[in-house]
Structures are given as structure tokens and as C-alpha cells.
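Action item from last meeting closed. Structure (544 res):
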């Protein structure tokens, strides 16, 4: 076992010791919650219970849970005891990190014990079983055995046979115009007679493959940008193996620096509009800060989506702000590889942090009801995992531990101690209202650190759904606030709600910073940077 894994185990052990000490110091708290749960259970059994599932809890949507007295009593008894455990954890006198660890552990247990996860106590599963004479259970067992051997023990979230990158996904025409060890750079072919002189340069997360930005026709950010008359370049990261274990955050930033120079050379523009999301947003911001520290004026603007750069104020935001750190730690503990954090291990860690949505719902669908996993492009992309080099993984953890880009012990890249204050261009920030990976109030904190003006919008969706938010969804909405505000609460207090996608709002903002309109190039690349493979390139096809 490595020294770091020993340290992780010691941290978890210390958390459990702190939990035990707090529980022993205040036994009356546990007793009070137990008595309250017992009273609520008795009320549910006598038909006087009033407990309801939390907003967004989809497990008890079947009307039988409320219409049938037996199922209703079972649901309310479960809610009483799970609420009691949550209340007990909230009352513990431990640090925020330790409380999060305890909450993760207790939630795993209470979620697993939900009556919806068992055949006899799930009305929807029982109805299907009676209608099909048990055939659903035969199909479910077959799918269960397949997942145990071929999907790492997790229920499959998607039917992978329905999609192929380059045939069903990532279809916007383009070519690879530059390649090196870390990345391929793709330039997309223009579809308008004129384009903006300042190109758009997109930095995807290193944790996933780039085509989330070019998912499918009508759901592609790249397609929409090209249609708006932008010159678009995007990075496709190489899926690292153990031989690339030494790749650091600095080496990724340096690779981006070289790729942006290529994009500027091809487009003839001295600067570009830099765009990044999630961990790609962190890398893009570090690059922009590095340029600022060096006095290089290559960033015409910076757009950051669902990206947290400042965790120094985490105690003032939702507890979920620590989740990114805990996910990486959990994934490292699950990983069997020394050189890279396997993509499957990272996927497993994310899933166990949201087990009701990402595990138990598919357990019920695939095994109890016997339905095949859905064929959904977003889920296919999510399952198309990538590895994370050990050195980059370590650097990301250290960045979070030291407060992020604005922390006192913030990152030093290429000999420069970087700060968000070095980013002086205009910035556009987007957070997701129900994002559990990068909570929106954490994304908002970036505004205070930037050296230039910024615009913040809040989409109504979660982490990935906020990003893939094309116009046309009648349920879509977003919030903006053109007034003065310095905190998430102040933003909400004066925010205006807009129906529809935030994409057109961003397009207008980006168009104002796109430079002059010039004749569209007849071909991608240049004499110095000749195009090679067609988009989506070759790096994206490497399996984890």
C-alpha cells in the first residue's frame, strides 16, 4: 500500500474516531432522534403519519405508495428513520470534512435499505412480476450477471450498443490541425460566409472525452457556435496510460499554451475566446492566469462553466463543495492501478456519491423490472470513461486542499505563482442550480477573485444537463442579474428569471467579444499546420 493510501486510510480512521467521540459526548442527541423516529413510525402504522419524500426524491413516485395503507406506512417508517439518521449526523460536533464523510457513509446505508430496492416491497416491480409471470426476473438476473462480469459490478446505465463516436456522436465536420503527446487540436469547418475574427478555443475536462461539446446534431455546443459564425477549435485529450503517469497539471497547461498558439496562428488572430468546463475550466483559468502573470495578451475573454476555482470559502456554501475532493479520494482508494486513476474507478466513485440516481434506480429498472438500460447519448458519453494520470490527480487534490486558485498556497505554474487577479479579460460564468459535483454557489465565488468584469448565470439543471441545454426545451430556464451583487444570496435576490436555454444569452455575450466579421476560410488548418485526421480525431477512440 502506498504512503498516500495509508494517509487516506488514516484520515478516514480519524474521521470515525471523531464521530465516535462526538456521539459519546452527546448521547442525548441520538436518543432524541430515535424517539422521534419511533413516534413517527407509530403514527404511520396507525394512519396518522404525514411524512413525505423530499423534493426530487423519485423513489416513491408510484401512486401506490400513497393509496395503499400498507405501502404508505412502510414508506413513512423508512423516511422517519432515514431522517433521524440525517438529523443525528447534522448535530454532530465535528469538522465539516468529517461530517461530510459520515454523511456519505450513513447515506450509503440508508439508501441501500430503502424498500424500493427489494422486490416484495416495491409495488411497481411486484406489478410487473405478476403481469409477466416472473419473466422480468429472469431477464433481470441475466442482466445482473452480465453487469457483474462486464461492468465492474455496477448496474448498466446505458445500452452502449446503440452508439458509436463518429457515427452517432461527435458529427460536426472538422479536422485535426495539431497533435502532441497530451492532445489533438480539432478545428471545425465554417458553415457561414463570414466568421468572427477572434476564434473560440474550448478546453474540455481531462476526466471525460471531449465530445460532450459535440454530442449530437441539435444538442451540440460546437455545432451551435459554428452556426453563429465563430471559428471553433477544441482540444481532445489523450487517454493516458501508466506510461503517462508523470503528466502534471503544469504539463497540461503548457500543452494548452502551445495549442492556443497554433489556433492563433491558423486564424491570424493575436488572441482568442477561451472556454472551459469543470476540470477543463480550472486548466483554462490557470492558463489565462499564467498569460496574465507573463504579460501575454492572448485571452480575449474567458467562459467558465460548472467550474469551481475558489474553495477557500467552502464553509459559506453548500456541503457539496467538498464532494469533488471526496470523489477523487474515494476513486483513488478504489483504484487498482499505480500509474493512473482508472476511468471506471472514477465513474464508480461518482456513482456511489449519488447512489439513488446512479445505482439504485438502475438496480430497480434493470434487475427487478427487467427493462433494458436506456439508449441515451448523454449516458453513453458518461460511461465512455478516461483515465487520470497519477501526477495530475495529485495536483488536483493539492489544489483543492490549499483553497483553489485563490488560496494562499495557490498553484505555481512555470515558475509563476498564479492568482485569479491575473485574469483581466471579461469572464462569463455559469453554474447549475442542482449541480452536486460543482455546486453553483461555489462556482459563483470565482467572481470575487477575477481581475476583470464578469457575468454570472444560473441554469436550472445539474452538472452535465446545465451544459447540454440547447434551445427548444420548454422546461428550461436560467437566472441572470445585471445589478450589483457580491454573494450568491444577493445574486438570487435581484435575479431575473428567463424562460429557455442560456445558450443564446452566452452567444450574444460571446458575439460582442468576437471581433470583426471576416470572410470565412475556405479550408481548415494552414500551410504550417496541415490538417490530418477528420474530426473527431484519433485520441477520442482510445478505450480506458
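Sequence:
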Amino acid at each position: 500500500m502506498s504512503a498516500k493510501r495509508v494517509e487516506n486510510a488514516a484520515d478516514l480512521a480519524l474521521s470515525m474516531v471523531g464521530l465516535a467521540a462526538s456521539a459519546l459526548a452527546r448521547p442525548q442527541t441520538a436518543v432524541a432522534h430515535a424517539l422521534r423516529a419511533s413516534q413517527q413510525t407509530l403514527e404511520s402504522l396507525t394512519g396518522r403519519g404525514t411524512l413525505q419524500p423530499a423534493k426530487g426524491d423519485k423513489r416513491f413516485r408510484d401512486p401506490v405508495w400513497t393509496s395503499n395503507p400498507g405501502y404508505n406506512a412502510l414508506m413513512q417508517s423508512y423516511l422517519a428513520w432515514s431522517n433521524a439518521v440525517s438529523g443525528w449526523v447534522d448535530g454532530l460536533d465535528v469538522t465539516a470534512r468529517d461530517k461530510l464523510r459520515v454523511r456519505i457513509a450513513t447515506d450509503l446505508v440508508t439508501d441501500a435499505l430503502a424498500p424500493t430496492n427489494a422486490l416484495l416491497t416495491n409495488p411497481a416491480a411486484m406489478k410487473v412480476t405478476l403481469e409477466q409471470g416472473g419473466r422480468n426476473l429472469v431477464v433481470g438476473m441475466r442482466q445482473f450477471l452480465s453487469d457483474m462480469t462486464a461492468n465492474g459490478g455496477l448496474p448498466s446505465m446505458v445500452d452502449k450498443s446503440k452508439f458509436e463516436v463518429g457515427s452517432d456522436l461527435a458529427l460536426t465536420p472538422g479536422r485535426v490541425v495539431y497533435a502532441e503527446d497530451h492532445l489533438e487540436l480539432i478545428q471545425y469547418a465554417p458553415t457561414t460566409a463570414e466568421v468572427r475574427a477572434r476564434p473560440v478555443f474550448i478546453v474540455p475536462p481531462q476526466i471525460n472525452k471531449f465530445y460532450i461539446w459535440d454530442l449530437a446534431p441539435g444538442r451540440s455546443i460546437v455545432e451551435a457556435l459554428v452556426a453563429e459564425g465563430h471559428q471553433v477549435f477544441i482540444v481532445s485529450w489523450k487517454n493516458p496510460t501508466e506510461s503517462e503517469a508523470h503528466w502534471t497539471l503544469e504539463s497540461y497547461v503548457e500543452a494548452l499554451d502551445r495549442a492556443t498558439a497554433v489556433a492563433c496562428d491558423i486564424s491570424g488572430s493575436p488572441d482568442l475566446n477561451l472556454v472551459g468546463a469543470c476540470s477543463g475550466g480550472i486548466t483554462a483559468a490557470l492558463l489565462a492566469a499564467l498569460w496574465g502573470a507573463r504579460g501575454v495578451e492572448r485571452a480575449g475573454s474567458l467562459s467558465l462553466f460548472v467550474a469551481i476555482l475558489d474553495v477557500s470559502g467552502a464553509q459559506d456554501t453548500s456541503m457539496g463543495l467538498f464532494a469533488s475532493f471526496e470523489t477523487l479520494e474515494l476513486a483513488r482508494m478504489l483504484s487498482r492501478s499505480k500509474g493512473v486513476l482508472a476511468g471506471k474507478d472514477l465513474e464508480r466513485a461518482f456513482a456511489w456519491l449519488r447512489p439513488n440516481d446512479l445505482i439504485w434506480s438502475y438496480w430497480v429498472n434493470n434487475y427487478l423490472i427487467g427493462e433494458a438500460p436506456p439508449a441515451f447519448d448523454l449516458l453513453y458519453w458518461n460511461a465512455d470513461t478516461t483515465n487520470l494520470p497519477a501526477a495530475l490527480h495529485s495536483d488536483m487534490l493539492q489544489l483543492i486542499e490549499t483553497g483553489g486558485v485563490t488560496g494562499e498556497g495557490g498553484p505555481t505554474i512555470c515558475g509563476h505563482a498564479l492568482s485569479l487577479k491575473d485574469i483581466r479579460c471579461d469572464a462569463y460564468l455559469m453554474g447549475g442550480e442542482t449541480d452536486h459535483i460543482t455546486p453553483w454557489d461555489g462556482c459563483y465565488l470565482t467572481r470575487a477573485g477575477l481581475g476583470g468584469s464578469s457575468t454570472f448565470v444560473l441554469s436550472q439543471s445539474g452538472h452535465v444537463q446545465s451544459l447540454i441545454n440547447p434551445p427548444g426545451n420548454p422546461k428550461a430556464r436560467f437566472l441572470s442579474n445585471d445589478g450589483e451583487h457580491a454573494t450568491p444570496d444577493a445574486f438570487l435576490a435581484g435575479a431575473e428569471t428567463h424562460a429557455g436555454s442560456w445558450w443564446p444569452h452566452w452567444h450574444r455575450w460571446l458575439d460582442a467579444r468576437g471581433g470583426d466579421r471576416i470572410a470565412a476560410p475556405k479550408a481548415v488548418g494552414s500551410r504550417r499546420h496541415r490538417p490530418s485526421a477528420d474530426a473527431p480525431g484519433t485520441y477520442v477512440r482510445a478505450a480506458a
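Note appended to the action item: The radius of gyration is 25 Å.
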